[in-house]
Amino acid sequence: MKSSACETEAIFAELQKIMKLLPRNQQLELACHIEYCLRELKHLIAEAPTGVGKTIAYLIPAILLSLKTKKKVIISTSSKTLQKQLVDVDLPNLQKILPFEFLLSLGSDNYICDSRMSQGHQLGFFGNSDDIDALEKIAVLRRKNPEATFLDCEFSVPDSLKKRICRDSHACSSKCQLKESCTYMMTAKKYRDAHILVTNHHKTLHLLKNSSKKLDDTEAIIFDECHNLEDTATIVFSNDISGKDVITAIKELYDQRSDGGLLGRVRVSRELKDAAIKAIRSVVERIYELHETAIHTLKDIGQDLTDEDLECLKQLQSSLIHLSSILQKCKVDLVMQYSAQLDDFVKIIDCILKKEKGYVHWKHVTKHNWTFTATPLSVSDILRKKLFSANKITTVHVSATVAVNKNMRFYRSRIGIINAEEKIVESPFDYRKQAAIYIPSTMPEPLEKGYVPAAIAEIEKLITHFQGRTLILFTSYAAMNEAHELLCKQCPDFVFLKQGDSATNSLINKFKKTDKGVLLGAATFWEGVDIPGPALQCVIIMKLPFGVPTDPVAMAHQEELKKRGLQPFWSYLLPPALIKFRQGFGRLIRRENDSGVVAILDARIRTKLYGKTFRKSLPNCPVISDVCRFPVKKRN
Prior knowledge:
Elements (H helix, E strand, L loop, with lengths): L6 H13 L5 H15 L3 E5 L6 H16 L2 E6 L2 H15 L7 E3 L9 H10 L5 H16 L14 H7 L17 H8 L5 E5 H9 L8 E7 L4 H8 L2 E4 H11 L16 H32 L5 H23 L3 H22 L4 E7 L4 E7 L3 H10 L4 E6 L9 H7 L4 E5 L6 H4 E4 L12 H15 L4 E5 L2 H14 L4 E4 L5 H10 L3 E6 L15 E4 L10 H12 L4 H18 L10 E5 L3 H4 L3 H6 L6 E2 L12
Parallel strand pairs: 1-9, 1-10, 2-4, 2-5, 3-4, 5-9, 11-16, 11-17, 12-14, 12-15, 13-14, 15-16
Antiparallel strand pairs: 6-8, 7-8
């Protein structure tokens, strides 16, 4: 460490006295290095495995920096689970010894808007049973906690309903009669006094994208779960429009099937109303024409945008501009909000029609919807200009899995950071004693005939030995649903809980309490699940988590790499798969007294050359051939 005196170390001593928290050597090492980098205005990329206690390690230096400079430090995360841990546990604990204020600052779509809910009820937008059930639960939650957001909903809220009742900048007015009780406005008032802002990667990157003035008083940004930063940046800096989004917006104005909607309830002239309805019908026709064209060209060309697609998109844009101009003439605030939303669609279409260099232009077409997207081929140049060069903001990038082959080259290249220090902290866990790896020797490869029944047989053996207490990770929802159906039939003595059946927190809590429980998950469950103790003693990885190589953006990346004489598999497809694989493995050992087995049901880990790379990426723990010899812990 370059610092002779680590101020953070003194805070840890106070924590130890007040809260009986004994810092680990790795935690203190990381904290002091972060303090040094923040003080010396150096960017830092750090890998801190599970168990190090990285949140406290970066929070203390961040708070000290903010108190000293009188500027804010943003803590940006990928998962809502981590945000809740920070604001419910870690930051309140640190307030016992440090005089600072913090604020959870979420994106608009996380805030529940009472005004939009009230309007929705008046206009009859909430008709189906799922919406009504969720709204009743939200009402109960808001009575208990008036400042509740969607983050506090431990029940499922349909995405379509969220879009209808979340805070919308177009609908947000200073004249709103409910602004005094508005959760978003209450948060905005607390912003000025906050030293620490806890938010998500989406909001942080949107601030950068829009060159927000809020960043003017920001001293540093700490990106936790930074391994997701590139993917989030790719989404934020993309421009996309879908037929479904446009239909949802204009259907609230006028529903052709029921002849209802907002236009029938506001006072505007008959002439304007008729003109608006005619314009809406024109937009709907353009959307359906575009869908037919997109399906036809998809069969011939694939996901690339054709001249026919772009011509239809241009016609849709013209119809939207015409409708927006009519809505502006209505001079009714509620109607004019929709005009602003349509103008946003027009701007997005502009970006897609430009076919800007450095972007991949593609479409996704289903039976009932189409989406056109312009995605940056690489976000490294964008982030380098908007974050690492344009702003005098120091950044710290932390994750349990950010290194590939013990270095940060892949991460640096993907996000565009050049001058940054690197730090890899050793794990405090003794994996040789706490964990084992089980790789069946007779499994077929995933694409071979017989893989599914062989995998189900292995799962049955594992869950029988561990009496449930198992998390099974899948690389697709389709495979998860298929396995769930088969397991429910073949293993009736176990309780199978599947991602999506209820809110994640509720599902995990149920799993912890369920005897002989087995939890099935995909996507976010590879990194969003924290189940310490004997409730989880086995993690099953069904397949090595490679991305989809035929995705249009992935294909464009691979073509670009080939032009540069590089091998796409080793330089583009393998590194993120290794990071996700390590994340999946990390679901097992969460505390010093945890133990268990990670079973890998993908034969490629022993049959393919790259399988060795996957094995080497894991902690040093024994590989066993007979899982039944591994001891099972009793439940508390």
